[in-house]
Amino acid sequence: MTGATGLVGGGLIPLLRAGNPERDLVLLVRRPSAFHFPGCIVLEADVTKPGLGLGQAELSILSRQVTQVIHSAADIRFRISLEESRATNVEGTRRMLEFAGLCHRLERFLHVSTIYVAGKRTGLVAEGPSCSIAGFVNTYQQTKFEAEQLVLASMARMPVAIARLSSIIGDSRHGSVHQFNYFHQSIKAIPWNPLPAIPADPEARIDLVSSDWTIAALHLLFDECFAPGRVFQLCAGPERSWTVGELLSRTYDVFERHHVHLRLRRRPRMVPYSEFERVVDKLSHRLPASFNDWLGALLTFLPHLSLQQQFDNADTERLLAGRVPFPSLESYFQQIVEYCVATNWGRAAAD
Ligand SMILES: NC(=O)c1ccc[n+]([C@@H]2O[C@H](COP(=O)([O-])OP(=O)(O)OC[C@H]3O[C@@H](n4cnc5c(N)ncnc54)[C@H](OP(=O)(O)O)[C@@H]3O)[C@@H](O)[C@H]2O)c1
Question: CATH classification of 7-170+207-240 is 3.40.50.720, yes or no?
Answer without folding.
Answer: yes
